[in-house]
Design a protein that fits this description.
This protein is an alpha/beta fold and about 425 residues long. The chain has helices at about 30-45, 105-120, 125-135, 145-165, 170-175, 195-205, 220-235, 250-260, 280-290, 300-310, 325-340, 350-355, 400-405; strands spanning about 15-20, 20-25, 50-70, 70-85, 90-100, 180-185, 210-215, 240-245, 265-270, 290-295, 315, 365, 380-385, 385-390.
């Protein structure tokens, strides 16, 4: 029950009396001022409403062409942003992304034509209730997919707004005590020749990374093994090296590959098989003999529950931009913790650094190839293998809207 204005006569003439069933002494002027200040703050918060929602689509050109075993050649990614403003003038920013130019317009359309009308007038503090409202309103056409991307952007904006209102950085607002998070450089480099692969790795080491991920999944396994061996020799015996197959293989192929990589001290093998094959993940983990990371293509908490329960993953890897936002990401991290597993991340590193800084079972942060550094006022800082969660209020992502305007996607109107 909220705090309601006192009825006439609820406070006695000497400054004390019952208010909503509680007797508050008002005889001291400081007590009176403090009480009415707190009362005004609570009343102010209770009247808070979402006043406007602005959604935008941008097609971001990549600085260089990227390649992996599933998506092939990538020259762009779609960025969908959501700005939610309350009736006190405070604004929260959320965003999601897709590979290439596919799907961005569909997410934007859902935000504009389905979600916006469901949000206007809502209390932005009631994030869990808003998530449930959107989930069930979109359930018949959603339950993952485009709906999860759109809900994620909204949820991120609401958490940004709420932590800004609390005047805290998001990671601290979520209960974090340390702003330092281990980070690795996620290469999207399947078709790079080995000399260019090594040059890229050296660039990342020079930028402050002390862990590296490379792509595998070429047509011939022996080519993958040759490249992994070259990378291990380049890095030395101890620096963490992850490999990512992007769902390329069957269970038998993935198991064979895992065994072939075992001699090279692989930190984890990522997405060895299709994401829905939870028992297949378990087989690769058990028979292949190296840890498995997976989850970037799971878009609901229920899928993560099945993967974790099946024993098919060593490092659950939710992506806050497609799994339902911060609300669901945190629940998955807690689910992983209860299963004795560390949690890692995929993509949108400027957001995930906050979530991992607040997760007691945090593993590595992925610094993803789909970065926004060219459009950020404050790019993520990496030093000696660690990313620093920013001290700015909210998530602290400040986009250069003028620069983004050059890459605006089609207008739905």
């Amino acid at each position: 029950m909220g705090v309601h204005p006192p009825e006439t006569g609820a406070v006695s003439t000497d400054g004390s009396g019952p208010i909503n069933g509680a007797t508050v002494s008002m005889t001291h002027p400081v007590s009176a001022r403090l009480f009415f200040y707190l009362y005004q703050q609570v009343s102010h918060a209770e009247s808070m409403k979402i006043q406007s929602i602005a959604s935008d689509l941008f097609y971001i050109p990549l600085p260089e062409v990227l390649t992996d075993s599933t998506h092939g050649v990538m020259e762009h990614f779609a960025l969908v942003t959501v700005r939610i403003r309350d009736n006190q003038g405070l604004e929260g920013l959320g965003y999601t992304y897709t590979v290439g130019k596919t799907g961005g317009a569909a997410i934007l359309s859902m935000l504009e034509f389905d979600i916006k009308r469901l949000l206007l007038g809502e209390d932005p503090n009631e994030i869990d209730r808003i998530f449930d409202k959107l989930w069930w309103a979109l359930h018949y056409v959603g339950r993952g997919g485009i709906a999860s991307f759109a809900i994620s952007a909204v949820d991120i904006a609401l958490w940004d707004l709420k932590s800004k209102r609390a005047n805290q950085p998001l990671w601290k607002f979520l209960g974090g005590v340390d702003d330092q998070v281990k980070a690795y450089a996620g290469g999207i480099d399947l078709q790079l020749p080995i000399d260019r692969l090594e040059a890229q790795t050296q660039e990342n080491l020079d930028r402050g990374f002390r862990a590296i991920k490379m792509k595998v999944g070429r047509d011939k396994l022996e080519e993958d093994v040759q490249r992994v061996a070259a990378m291990r020799e380049f890095l030395g015996p101890d620096l963490p090296l992850m490999v990512d197959a992007n769902m390329r293989w069957s269970v038998n192929q993935a198991t064979e590959a895992a065994k072939a990589f075992a001699d090279y001290n692989i930190y984890w093998l990522e997405e060895p098989v299709i994401p829905e094959d939870f028992q297949g993940h378990r087989r690769v983990l058990v028979e292949g003999g190296i840890p498995i990371a997976s989850g970037e293509n799971l878009h609901t908490i229920y899928e993560f529950e099945k993967l974790i329960t099946a024993g098919g993953v060593s490092y659950p890897e939710p992506d806050v931009a497609n799994v339902g936002g911060i609300t669901i990401w945190r629940k998955i991290a807690q689910m992983a913790e209860q299963a004795g597993l560390p949690v890692t991340s995929h993509g949108v590193h400027d957001l995930h650094v906050h979530l991992l800084a607040a997760a007691p079972n945090a593993s590595f942060l992925e610094a993803h190839g789909f970065g926004l550094e060219r459009f950020l006022e404050y790019p993520l800082q990496i030093e000696e293998g660690f990313a620093t969660a920013p001290s700015r209020t909210g998530h602290g992502v400040c986009l250069d809207w003028d620069a983004l305007e050059h890459h605006r996607g089609p207008n739905l109107n």
